[in-house]
Amino acid sequence: METGKSLKIGQLAQRSAVNLQTIRFYEREGLLPEPPRLSSGYRLYTDSMVRRVRFIKRAQEIGFSLAEIRELLSLRADGRRERNEVRDLAHAKIADIEGKIRTLKAMKTALTRLTERCSGCGPASECPILESIDSEEVLR
Amino acid sequence: LRIGELSKATGVKVVTIRFYEKTGILTAPARSAGNYRIFRGEHIRRLHFVRRCRDLGFSLEQVRDFLQLSTQSKASCAKVCRIAELHLRDVEDKIADLKCLASELRRITASCTGTRPMSECRIIEALYKAKEC
């Protein structure tokens, strides 16, 4: 386990580049383990939590719901979980991820085509990017 | 057009249309005597535009910028281009991260037959390594 130094919630938030409410929210959603508290009532976090918080945030950005992130973080075999169950869940997640990649790749293709059309030198009202989006199904 | 008909014509949900109207992405339509929203051709066109932008993954803020830029006579096309290029980079980064995550999950499931416990840490690390792979 982590032997690094302990962080207060503000320090954790700052290092993970999220705000305080986000940390509390993740905690309420069960994405972060309940931290031990000082006698003064302050929550105390290990610095391994920084990576965990950043992971959760980035995972949200790349298209995972909180429920999905919870599943990703639970992908470990411990006494309570059957190895097969974990493996099945991981396979399901891989399939999900491949679906997300397919969607993003379609976006990438369409966006590349659009940006190539734009010389960047006309007025925005005649921009080929906007005109294309306005007049055709750019993604399909 | 009533809101339901507009929804059918554009494939955008009724709640989403109301949300667009509330947030100013869609201009408020005229109301009928019975206080129903009456949408016109220009709404259909604008909604198609917004829906296509969203299909391409643009944020609502970016869509708003597009709509604003298209009506400003002095705005330059280069601004539109920059938004699109930034978004393209963003999409590419996401693809890279997802690929890393998938390959880490594959590694984990492959090593799952042994007796070693799997660690959530490796999944968390996957999004860090993404910057390098």
What does this structure look like?
The complex is a heterodimer of chains A (140) and B (133). Chain A is an all-alpha fold and 140 residues long. Chain A contains six helices and two strands, in the order E-H-H-E-H-H-H-H. Chain A has a two-stranded antiparallel ribbon. In chain A, helix 1 crosses helix 3 (48-61). The radius of gyration of chain A is 22 Å and the shape is flat. With 133 residues, chain B is mainly alpha-helical. In chain B, helix 5 (77-110) runs antiparallel to helix 6. The model of chain B has no long low-confidence stretch (mean pLDDT 84). The interface between A and B is large, with 55 and 50 residues.
Give a topology summary.
The complex is a heterodimer of chains A (140) and B (133).
Chain A: E1 6-7, H1 9-16, H2 20-28, E2 45-46, H3 48-61, H4 66-73, H5 83-117, H6 128-135
Antiparallel strand pairs in A: 1-2
Chain B: H1 3-10, H2 14-22, E1 30-31, E2 37-38, H3 41-55, H4 60-71, H5 77-110, H6 120-129
Antiparallel strand pairs in B: 1-2
Question: Which key phrases capture this entry?
Answer:
heterodimer, A: 140 residues, mainly alpha, two-stranded antiparallel sheet, 2 strands, B: 133 residues, 66% helix
Distance between the termini of chain A: 49 Å
Lateral strand order in the biggest sheet of chain B: 1-2
Q: Strand arrangement, largest sheet of chain A? A: 1-2
Average pLDDT, all residues of chain B: 84
Largest inter-chain contact set: A-B, 55 and 50 residues
The sequence of SSEs of chain A as H and E is EHHEHHHH
Biggest sheet statistics of chain B: 2 strands, antiparallel
Number of β-strand runs of chain B: 2
**Helicity range of the residues of chain A?**
55-70%
Gap from first CA to last CA of chain B: 51 Å
Helix and strand pattern of chain B = HHEEHHHH
Report low-confidence residues of chain A grouped into runs of 5 or more.
Answer: none
* Biggest sheet statistics of chain A: 2 strands, antiparallel
Average of the residue pLDDT scores of chain A: 84
The structure class of chain A reads: mainly alpha
